[in-house]
Amino acid sequence: MSHRFFLILLVGLGSVGLASAVSADRPEPDLTVGRAAYQQQCARCHGVEGKGDGYDAKRLYPRPRDLTEGVFKFRSTATGTAPTDDDLFQALTNGLPGTGMPDWSHLDENLRWQLVEYIKSLSTVFTDAPPEPANLGTDPGRKRIDLAQGKAVYDKLGCAACHGVSGRGNGPSAATLTDNWSRPIRPKDLTERWSYRGGSAPREIVERILTGIDGTAMPSYAEAASPEEVWQLAYYVQSLQQDIQSTMIAHSHRVDGSLPEKADDPQWDEAPRADARLRYVVDAQGAVNAPQTVTRLSFWALHNDEALSLRIRWNDVSEDRPAPTAVGADALAVTWLPQGVAGDVISLHTWPLRGTPPLDLCLWIADETGGSVHEAVVQDFDELLNNSVAGSARAGQASYLDGEWTVVITRPLSPSDVSGSAQLAGQSIVPVGFVVWDGGNPGQRAVSMWVDVVFRRDTQ
Ligand code: HEC
Ligand code: HEC
Predict the structure, then answer these.
(1) Same domain, yes or no, for 257 and 357?
(2) Which of 97, 392, 404, 447 sits most deeply, having the most CB atoms within 10 A of its CB?
(3) End-to-end alpha-carbon separation of the chain, Å?
(4) pLDDT, tens digit (0-9, with 9 covering 90-100), for 385-403
(5) Pocket test for ligand 1, best of 33, 35, 38, 45 (most atoms within 8 A of CB)
(6) What is the pTM of this model?
């Protein structure tokens, strides 16, 4: 017993020793080394002079930072002051998930420190407003947290105005925020554990709340709340987080009898969930000019001998059903490979390009009654979106609840009313893809990878 305790103690001490040893082992700053690494790894996004105007910049949203301005988002330091060296080292090492900023953990540690030194040489903020560590208080530990109190702090501080009542980034102010660079910005969807840029653990969330996210609408709450309250709040925010299990393979279970038409039919409990991350495609100028408002999609598949039903759910902060004044409608396309088109010849990221084969689409468009679904084999989304091709009607049901659409689409396995359409009867694996439009964020579409749906013959 005591032996084991001793070992644990040693391990504990060892890691503390290691952490400080790393700092002590930092190389002598050498800006030539840092500059060379910067030009090689970072300039294509952040620009040769660090002004955020690299060759790839316009393809990314949010844009790569202008590192000469000295505005840093993810700091352990008071708002308006420079980040610490460790903050920069963390951002470099872990990257900023959910943005174009990659992680650089594969670079030699010494080189990462040289890059930190080089970043600091680009802006005067490090001397004008040197890092001032924020008082983060003490972690009370999960056991001493009352999530109801955390929720009360969330309400009291008005987080819901931006992040929404359930944290999905769909608060009343969400659609109108801009950042320091006059670009639209959206509050984070706090339920997405995988895309916290500054880290999803309570301590990191405390840092965000007490120091704010400089350059954005997210303020510092250091004056508005005590560290004790903020720890309660941070654990509450953590309790909202969910995981995503993106998959390339989904399973459709066979049902005896009729397929579910409604989203809340208990038959769906039999179907396994499949998740897919969605990405925005660049426009004709090779740019992305809006924040990504639709980021993920889950679906469930059930089939019988005649048809396939898909229940599809995705996040969309605004419910956009076209009225005479609406900019655009929310819409979803389920994509299939038409007869005779095989393999991965088409990427939804590049379709439609001149010369790419047509696709079989089941397109749902929101309207005041719920929406309609039409299927056609087309060369371009516009043919169906603009109604220049009428398509064949399919059964569809849609509902919108608190920042999420759920749509059920039922399609015959082998439609006879659409020439060249995907014939699924007798197939055991069928690729399916998804394309989503957010009417409140027009001009951008989010696409998935192809997911292989395996048709299971057995009933569950
Ligand atoms: C593929 C594009 C890309 C490359 C390459 C890239 N970055 Fe970034 N970087 C970004 C984007 C995009 C952001 C802004 C993210 C945001 O605002 O949330 C960013 C933000 C940053 C920030 C700001 C962090 C903060 O807390 O505000 C730093 C520092 C940074 N990058 C350093 C680097 C360094 C050093 C390199 C090279 C080793 C590098 N980046 C390479 C895209 C890139
Ligand atoms: C005025 C709008 C606004 C309010 C109010 C607000 N936030 Fe935010 N928050 C934002 C925006 C915008 C971002 C995203 C910043 C970005 O994209 O760089 C954000 C990001 C975050 C993040 C994500 C950090 C990461 O690592 O990616 C957390 C956590 C967060 N907010 C928590 C809160 C909490 C808790 C409150 C209430 C105390 C709150 N916010 C209040 C606008 C707001």
Answers:
(1) yes
(2) 447
(3) 49
(4) 888 888 999 999 999 998 9
(5) 45
(6) 0.91
